[in-house]
Specification:
The complex is a heterodimer of chains A (264) and B (246). Chain A has 264 residues and is an all-alpha fold. In chain A, 42% of the residues are buried. Helices cover 75% and strands 0% of the residues of chain A. In chain B, 37% of the residues lie in helices and 27% in strands. In chain B, the strands form 2 sheets. Chain B has a 6-stranded mixed sheet with strand order 5-6-7-3-8-9, sandwiched between helices. A 3-stranded antiparallel sheet of chain B has the order 2-1-4, with helices on one face. Chain B starts with a strand and ends with a helix. The chains are: A mainly alpha (264), B alpha/beta (246). The interface between A and B is medium-sized, with 32 and 35 residues.
């Protein structure tokens, strides 16, 4: 059974069960369980805050820097976890792929969706901190928050596209899993996660525009830090590239899907 | 497709590309493209296979290891796309090929029932309906809420069989599987298999046990190195096969 949109819709129950399985598995191996959904984004932000703000004394004009960091780090973590889990998604399910006919795209897509749910909880931490910074910096949640689902959708579309691409590559080249972590780390430093787009020299900005995460991160910042609508040209560009990535990923996955059984 | 048939296979070819180091790595891929050197070997698992089975008949597939029996099952179950040829099966196919393949060891038996059921294409409400019967048949009792990694291999086999056998198949494809577990469960699962077979509208069985084939199948095909050697009633084909082996 191939991963056409109709077949994926027909197997939506499978996607739902896979997403809940992913979530249960991740929280079962720790004594704090679901609490990690809240602790994890905080600890990760703390690490970058210590390195960038305290050690390198950087980030001064992006205040409060904690919120600035989180607006970049949280969507990135959802993306990067989805991608690194998708690399081995097909291989890890070799047994079931050889036993039952189902649209294989449910495997990477279920990782994308479970990470989106984790991201939702991380966003709640972010909003909590925005409230805490409210009295000092005026970062009160407001009407601009209505944009959040739209930004998350752009992020979801891009993540799904990349997940389909890497899960296909993961079957064809067994080294994909070795290299993907390094590529992701590099990509994070090339995205405006620790710095803002304004800090990039003008001549490089066009390249940054090609990275949907430039638009995505800056949009989250406009909303959470300034209660402003996202910068629409950048967001529009990010949405267009995300859509193109999803189409490319879908095409690649579908063109190779029939060979997965032979390769496993 | 002829409406009198439940399976039609015409000029079926299945070729696998096997890479010398099994998986080809990035380095190999780079080398291959640079040096234009081919490191892959084509293996023909099924070659120019044509046959049909009438409605009301049940098909047995026999042959030595590596003759292509399991590959044919994969193609008939629509898991493997053939390289060439036409394959048609009238009805919804349920395949019992390898049990418990999708178990996630960190999840409980209950969660795995839902996961496997969903892989098999059931809706959550359908699985809910069958859940009690599956647990009862598996005789797992309270273990059903324990992670599957704590199960013994016998318990795993019981759970896997109980889930797999909870279907109501139109066309049933069975690869070397009649009974699992300890002696008592073997009898119970074997009789459940017979029940499934009785209720199915079409049956395909792969087995090395000629008595199984004789008792279940009215048509037999004999494969050898991916080619069809003979087709006919068991009384004709099985003696010839047995003679060729001994």
């Amino acid at each position: 059974m191939l991963s056409s949109p109709a077949n994926l819709w027909r197997r939506r129950h499978l996607i739902r069960v896979l997403v809940t399985s992913n979530i249960k598995r991740q929280s079962r191996h720790s004594s704090l369980g679901y609490l990690w959904w809240l602790i994890d984004p905080l600890l990760m932000t703390a690490v970058y805050y210590v390195v960038v703000s305290i050690l390198f004394k950087h980030g001064g004009h992006n205040q409060p820097y904690i919120l600035f960091l989180m607006c970049g780090l949280l969507p990135w973590k959802a993306f990067s976890d989805s991608v690194s889990q998708s690399v081995g998604a097909i291989k890890a399910s070799a047994g079931i792929i050889k036993a039952i006919s189902f649209p294989k795209a449910v495997l990477p897509l279920s990782f994308v969706l479970s990470n989106l749910i984790f991201f939702g909880f991380a966003l709640m931490v972010l909003v909590g901190l925005a409230l805490a910074y409210g009295p000092q910096y005026g970062t009160w949640p407001g009407a601009a928050y209505l944009w959040l689902p739209g930004i998350a959708l752009v992020q979801l579309v891009f993540t799904a596209g990349v997940a389909l691409i890497v899960s296909t590559l993961g079957v064809i080249f067994s080294d994909t899993s070795n290299i993907i972590g390094h590529i992701l780390r590099m990509a994070y430093f090339l995205s405006p996660g620790l710095y803002s787009v304004e800090q990039i020299p003008q001549k490089f900005r066009i390249w940054f525009g090609l990275n949907p995460f430039s638009g995505i991160m800056e949009s989250y910042r406009a909303i959470v830090m300034h209660n402003q609508a996202p910068p629409l040209p950048q967001l529009g560009q990010a949405a267009a590239i995300a859509a193109a990535t999803l189409l490319a990923g879908y095409w690649l996955f579908r063109s190779r899907e029939g060979y997965f059984v032979q390769r496993l | 497709m002829d409406s009198q048939n439940f399976i039609e296979v015409e000029n079926l070819d299945v070729r696998f590309t096997v890479y010398r180091s099994r998986r080809h790595s990035l380095r190999e891929a780079i080398f291959r493209t640079l040096l234009l050197r081919d490191e892959k070997v084509d293996i023909a698992a099924l070659q120019n296979l044509s046959f049909s089975v009438r409605r009301g008949d049940s098909l047995g597939i026999i042959g030595k290891n590596g003759s292509g029996k399991s590959t044919l099952c994969l193609v008939l179950s629509r898991i493997l796309t053939p390289t060439r040829g036409r394959v048609e099966v009238a009805g919804k196919v349920s395949a019992l090929l390898s049990l418990g393949a999708g178990f996630q060891t960190d999840l409980t038996g209950r969660e795995n029932i839902f996961l496997q059921g969903a892989f098999m294409g059931h809706r959550l409400s359908d699985i809910n309906e069958r859940y009690r019967a599956i647990v009862e048949f598996s005789e797992l009792g309270e273990f059903i809420d324990m992670p599957v990694r704590t199960y013994s291999s016998g318990m795993l086999a019981r759970l896997a069989f109980s889930i797999a056998a909870s279907i109501e198949p139109e066309i049933l494809i069975v690869d070397e599987l009649m009974g699992v577990g300890d002696l008592a469960f073997q009898q119970k699962s074997a009789s459940r298999m017979k029940e499934l077979i009785r209720h199915s509208q079409g049956l395909v069985v792969v087995s090395h046990n000629m008595d199984t084939i004789r008792s279940l199948c009215s048509q037999v095909i004999w494969l050898e190195r991916g080619r069809l050697i003979a087709q006919g009633p068991p009384a004709d084909v099985i003696p010839r096969y047995e003679a060729s082996v001994s």
